[in-house]
Design goal:
By secondary structure, the chain is of the alpha+beta class. The protein has two domains: about 40 residues, no CATH class; about 80 residues, no CATH class. The protein has five helices and four strands; from the N terminus they run αβαβαααββ. The strands form two sheets. The protein has a two-stranded parallel ribbon. A two-stranded antiparallel sheet has the order 3-4. Helix 3 crosses helix 4. The longest helix is centred in the middle third of the chain and has 19 residues. The termini are far apart.
Length: about 140
Amino acid sequence: MNALQMALQDNAAPLIHHSDRGSQYVYKSYIELLKQNDTQISMALSAQDNAYAERINRTIKEEYLDYRKPQILQQLKKAVNKAVYHYNNQRPHNNIGKLSPVEFEKKWFNNQFEAIPVVTIFDNKYLTVKTVNYI
């Protein structure tokens, strides 16, 4: 609470506050303070969910931004847009048959797989890993 209150004294409240559902972020007074400042709250269903977002962020930073070395906000925005486009449309992903996410999705919805792919997901409810052949 103290850190959030100090931040709000010198800065405008964020439009969106995302957290990994850690205990400090589900604290009722903390959430109320964010809402009083018209901040939308984005929260993972469980702390484990945040690992997926962190993995994508690391990939974008290490594989794209470190190479381009943006110096100003406009360059950073352009580099991030290019990175996200490339990541989704051109970069092959090992876990989906070395296809890009866009290619995988098109093949999936057009029933173009010879065999139904098996996808491994983490089940937050039961804290287990399971494989499925449907989305």
